[in-house]
Amino acid sequence: MSQARPKNKRNKGRVGNGWIAQKGFSILELSITLAIIAAVAAMAYPAFQRITINGNLRSAAREIMGDISLLKERAMAQNTQFSIIFEPANNRYRASDMTAGEWKCPAMIGRDIQITKAAFGSGKTIVFETRGTIRQAGNIELTNGRGSTATITCNITGRTYVKFKMR
Hints:
three-stranded antiparallel sheet, elongated
């Protein structure tokens, strides 16, 4: 008969060749991982910031295009002339259906967005006729702090489109 050997208390928790099994990460491993993540984030931040600033320019241009399209539709639906007045010097615009002191400003979307130019014939006003056409074709130019531009072009049929030059 063989007797069972008493268990050695010193071997308890040991694996294989005598090393104790690890559960978790060491401080060194955690520090290296965090340093790598911080380095990657530091490299990605400028690109993320550029995307955000240029995204704000795109949003502002699309909002102005939406306002132009809305007024074109209203002119046709109500058989009435409507207009949008641009003031590049004050960085704002307003539609003829807005209240007297109400203005829209592209800087509400991004603080560095400016209306740099608005030209429709000899003025800065888009006038929509009752058929949805524009009295004078023209364009509006927006810029942001990075030097990117958005040019909104309105042709005489009332069609609008935008071209972006991103930096």
